[in-house]
Amino acid sequence: MEKGIIALAEWIIPGLILLVLVVALCRRLPVYELFIAGAQDGFEIAIKTIPYLVAMLVAVSIFRASGALDLLVKLLSPVLSPLGIPPEVLPHALLRPLSGSAALGVATDIIRTHGPDSMLGRLVSTMQGSSDTTFYVLSLYFGSVGIKKYRYAPITGLIADITTFLASVFFVRLIFG
């Protein structure tokens, strides 16, 4: 059973690529030309997204270097600690909506310090895997296609981030005690 799952995992992507090629050839589509056109479109989108990416990285760096992150953690710790939320994971929770790499750096530090099987290691790993980089997604993807009015997207994303943060705390405590 396990070998079958491993074989499926190893062959699913090559199988999908082969399926796409076979279907395209059966429909007599110009596969190579379509691939080149798609690659060109992708390259143009990548070039358009660079300013948004740079702006987001600069904003996160300023947020950390200015001490604003540390101040926010100090302000929130007394409120969240009685709820069973460890202050060590607050930097991760605050950075995750902004930058995946910054949040991953915090998670790596927590895991290195406390161990991957510690309560904090499990909690930060669950938080990392269950949330997304809300503002990064908004600025990069919406900006790259020219959407200026986000409407409810930021608040919806932040509600989802808070929900996953609280659910991570709840379920990690429930499962691992």
Automatic annotation (TrEMBL):
Alphabetically ordered keywords of this record: Membrane, Transmembrane, Transmembrane helix
Entry keyword annotation includes Membrane: yes
Annotated Gene Ontology cellular component terms: plasma membrane
Identification of the protein by name: Nucleoside recognition domain protein
Pfam family, one: Gate
Residues annotated as transmembrane: 6-29, 50-73, 155-176
Lineage start: Bacteria, Bacillati, Bacillota, Clostridia, Thermoanaerobacterales
The organism of origin for this protein: Ammonifex degensii (strain DSM 10501 / KC4)
Domain Nucleoside transporter/FeoB GTPase Gate: 47-148
